[in-house]
Specification:
By secondary structure, the chain is α/β, with parallel strands linked by helices. 18% of the residues lie in helices and 38% in strands. Strands 1-4-3-2 form a 4-stranded mixed sheet, covered by helices on one side. Strands 5-8-7-6 form a 4-stranded mixed sheet, covered by helices on one side. The two termini are 30 Å apart.
């Protein structure tokens, strides 16, 4: 059986801010919330039930050396360029817009980049095919 991505784990300074950010900008839901040895661990998913992929938010302060590389990011597909523009406008209003919106060509598509509360990049795009057979 081939491996498939089930989660991405992030170390976050403020779990509540992380839940709020991903809920408002990406529509994620808390599907699991626990405390292990005094450390809060929350799972966020697009589906409120029966998730097949989660972001695991672990409440620990990231080390100074743990800053993500420039283009390390989460990628979300949106249904239209207008939806990208709307997310970018909301991000700009909240001071978290990092880039765009911009058209980066037929493979990358139309996108904007936001920073979550811990500095992780989050890409919202339209027209970015994941299946190589769909690349023109």
């Amino acid at each position: 059986m081939p491996a498939h991505l089930t989660h991405v784990a992030l170390f976050v300074r403020d779990v509540a801010r992380t839940i709020d950010f991903y809920g408002r900008f990406a529509g994620l839901h808390v599907v699991h919330d626990r405390v292990d040895d005094g450390v809060r661990v929350v799972w966020l998913s697009e589906r409120g039930e029966d998730p097949d992929f989660v972001i695991v938010a672990i409440h620990l302060t990231p080390s100074a050396a743990g800053v993500p590389p420039r283009m390390a990011h989460f990628g979300y597909d949106l249904p239209s360029r207008a939806a990208v523009d709307e997310i970018a406008a909301r991000g700009r209003a909240e001071g978290v817009l990092e880039q765009g919106p911009l058209d980066a060509g037929p493979i990358v598509g139309y996108l904007c980049m936001l920073r979550d509360p811990d500095g992780n990049l989050v890409e919202f795009s339209h027209g970015q095919p994941i299946n190589p057979r769909h690349v023109k």
